[in-house]
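Thread title: Can someone regenerate the structure for this chain?

I was given the following input by a collaborator and told the matching structure tokens would be attached. They weren't. Posting the sequence so someone can regenerate them.
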Amino acid sequence: MVRPIVRVDFPGLLEEPLPSGGKRWRVRVEGEKKKRITISCGPQDEDFWRQYLAARRGVKVEPLKKASEYAKAKSIGWLVNSYFEYLEERVKAGTTSAKTLKKKRNLLARLIKRPDREMFVPQEKLIEFQDAMGSTPAQADAFIEAVAVMYDWAIKRKHVKTNPARGIESVYVKGDGAIPWKAADLKAYLATHKPGSKAHVALSLLVWTGCRIEDTTLLGRKHECVIDGVEALRWVPSKKGSSEVCLPLLPPLKAATRAPKVQGETYLLGRGGKPYASGDSASNMFKRWCVAAGIGNLSAHGIRKGLAEILAEQGCSQYEIMAILGHSEAKTSEVYTRRVERWKLALGAMERVNVSHAWG
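Best answer:
Regenerated them for you:
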């Protein structure tokens, strides 16, 4: 039985069914009706145009290969690149963020400086990597965790049997984190960065919404709405797992966002009147603005932390703080309310001790 050849919407491109039930793609060379060249993919593939245009000129090119296909079989280069390719597909499907993939690439790159080594890295070697990153302990622990997650992935696919990264002790001791901003810090910043400046818009967004720095690259007039007759902002923070935030669009924030001469897709604009490319780029710029104001020890996250403490001190419950800051779990906001509650309890107890003259 002769199977039909289906012509598609590209000159000379033929989709030919195969007896196996599959199909193949062939291209008729321009000007030579009888000469056809087989290509490895169809119009939906990202490599289609390269192969199709070459075939129309009578040239057969080899299909592009993935990095893992060029690597030595069962080497560390093969494993790491296979893992990256898996994550790339998840990014395309929307189940993994591009930011996560970027971080994994940066962390795992040190494993493939010698890509032909065996894919199973002994635990003592991983500890050497960790020790070499002693000046950045948080980064060292992030590296070990990234390696552990990759090997968990590899075990499920039977590439390896055990995970050498599991059981390695953490070297980073978490401190108190970002320094909370105080009123004097805000005054110093605003004395340097006046209304209409990008720096002023950034601070206004952080103060009057409690958003994270990465959300300043997204927030704009498209998030404005009216709720029960009140102008408001409604958005879902970019951090994975965050709850939707609805806040009144307060007059100081509205005025700050309208002050710049150049208006665009987002309130905060970078070069050329375009949004910042990432939270990291906005964070780096904000750090420069802090340095210019003489408060280089502070960061954007410290504003959010300071706001949480102020809200707790003003008697807001952990659930009210959750609503304002977009926390998805009560335990995150409870950190601030518990601190204030302990202080109030301690004051009350000391007052009772003082009244009863227990020590007199």
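The longest strand covers residues 23-28.
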